[in-house]
Task: inverse folding
């Protein structure tokens, strides 16, 4: 069991990133992670060894998020999801910085559904089955959402200023 | 991608995410080789995914607030929860300061086990061997079980370990060859902090089961208790025995049903080396093949024994126990005479 807790501890950064995606601000996101960890520890016996721990934790985190939202909406508080990925930090000589900023902006233009499926599969590396469990939709829906999300993202990137500039250059 | 009937958009997702069977994936790759336009699109999507995976990477690097670590830290100090009732009992105070209590509990369990072994010896007070055995059990659970932190001397450094043991114990205690029973030598280590001198050898079979042999120098006078002692507790089983100078304990998981035979083979191995009761001045006559030899020449011990061994007399030996060592290292001494010891390393002589 202590090994499981060590493994859970290693997942905390990813839990925080997913929570930051779901919730509107840092503190709220960390509240969610804390709630998720408390639940995970209490239900540690229900985790099946050999399965993806991150996916299991994400299900707990998502459930914590949903119940928190219900509570908040009963209170009449404003609810909303803002995928507050921080600006990528600038590293010296990092040529891909511009590309990274562009992909971030294009990503934020996507619908919530598309962002979330990309977050789980393309960013966190979960399988379609694991994503399906977290989002409570069939695997086929994951696949079709991914398809549209990726194509839309490419469309937004094509329309980005840099891509347009490259287009112009290549025609000159 | 729509225009490519071969690969619809959903199949493309499976391809990008590595979900196709190898034959299907190979067909897609072959197709892409012949269709540069489609290939370029796939590459774009790949780059896009690579960029995506860096999104929020900054969050991953942020230091984790203490309040998030706390629920885990609190629980990590607790022992394994086997039943809800047990869990309730142990998690009742929900405080980190309970850690010493759980530590005491596990020490108590080990103590109980040792006490039981003591009872087996019909000895009211735990003897040095009993305490050494409890140390050995702890050493096993600390080093022997963990696959990631097994040894400080792997098989390639068996010579270094043997040299260390020969220096420390004033005798050679080489890992027994139990490959005929499916177990290969994985490595060994010195066990610091235990009573007296102690070391451990770890073996593993093809199924990944591990056994560990812990040995220690005894501090007892009088004749050793005969026979072998068995114990089992909490998923761990052990067989232990002693000779006049050394104590041995073989540990394995509870699922292992050959521990008895392994222990007997090892006991036989070391008995052949040391003789059944104390020193035997004559060489072991029944050993036909040369025994497994240290891969590298040992700088200290072999020359000394080269002198003593062939002479078969023992007046200069200071201790009874070290005579037994002579028998063990005789082949090594011969190897030393031969000049190049490395040539004789591959021989895996039968030593039982």
Result:
């Amino acid at each position: 069991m202590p090994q499981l807790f060590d493994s859970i501890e290693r997942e905390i950064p990813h839990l925080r990133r997913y929570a930051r995606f779901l919730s509107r601000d840092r503190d709220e996101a960390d509240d969610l992670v804390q709630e998720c960890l408390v639940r995970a520890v209490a239900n540690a016996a229900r985790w099946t060894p050999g399965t993806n721990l991150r996916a299991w934790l994400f299900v707990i985190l998502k459930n914590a998020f949903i119940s928190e939202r219900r509570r908040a909406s009963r209170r009449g508080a404003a609810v909303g999801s803002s995928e507050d990925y921080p600006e990528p930090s600038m590293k010296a000589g990092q040529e891909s910085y511009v590309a990274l900023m562009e992909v971030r902006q294009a990503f934020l233009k996507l619908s919530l559904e598309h962002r979330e499926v990309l977050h789980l599969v393309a960013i966190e590396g979960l399988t379609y089955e694991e994503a399906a469990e977290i989002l409570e939709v069939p695997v086929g829906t994951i696949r079709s959402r991914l398809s549209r999300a990726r194509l839309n993202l490419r469309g937004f990137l094509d329309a980005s200023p840099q891509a347009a500039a490259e287009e112009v250059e290549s025609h000159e | 991608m729509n225009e490519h009937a071969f690969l619809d958009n959903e199949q493309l997702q499976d391809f990008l995410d590595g979900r196709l069977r190898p034959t299907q994936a190979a067909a897609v790759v072959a197709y892409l080789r012949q269709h540069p336009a489609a290939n370029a699109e796939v590459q774009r999507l790949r780059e896009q995914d690579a960029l995506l995976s860096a999104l929020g990477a900054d969050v991953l690097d942020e230091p984790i607030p203490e309040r998030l670590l706390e629920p885990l830290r609190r629980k990590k100090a607790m022992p394994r929860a086997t039943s809800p009732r047990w869990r309730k009992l142990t998690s009742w105070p929900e405080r980190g300061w309970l850690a010493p209590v759980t530590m005491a509990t596990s020490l108590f369990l080990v103590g109980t086990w040792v006490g039981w072994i003591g009872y087996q010896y019909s000895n009211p007070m735990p003897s040095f061997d009993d305490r050494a055995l409890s140390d050995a059990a702890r050493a096993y659970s600390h080093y022997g079980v963990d696959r990631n932190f097994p040894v400080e001397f792997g098989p390639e450094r068996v010579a270094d370990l043997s040299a260390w043991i020969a220096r420390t114990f004033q005798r050679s205690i080489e890992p027994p060859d139990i490959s005929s029973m499916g177990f290969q030598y994985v490595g060994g280590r010195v066990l610091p902090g235990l009573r007296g001198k102690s070391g451990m050898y770890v073996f593993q079979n093809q199924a990944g089961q591990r056994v560990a042999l812990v040995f220690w120098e005894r501090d007892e006078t009088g004749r050793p208790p005969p026979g072998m002692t068995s114990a089992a507790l909490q998923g761990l089983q052990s067989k232990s025995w002693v000779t006049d100078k050394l104590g041995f304990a073989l540990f394995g998981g509870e699922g292992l049903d050959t521990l008895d035979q392994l222990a007997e083979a090892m006991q036989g191995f070391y008995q052949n080396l040391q003789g059944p009761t104390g020193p035997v001045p004559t060489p072991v006559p029944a050993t036909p093949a040369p025994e497994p030899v240290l891969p590298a020449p040992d700088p200290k011990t072999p020359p000394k024994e080269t002198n003593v061994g062939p002479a078969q007399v023992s007046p200069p030996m200071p201790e009874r126990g070290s005579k037994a060592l002579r028998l063990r290292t005789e082949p090594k001494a011969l190897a030393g005479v031969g000049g190049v010891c490395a040539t004789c390393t591959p021989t895996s002589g039968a030593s039982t």
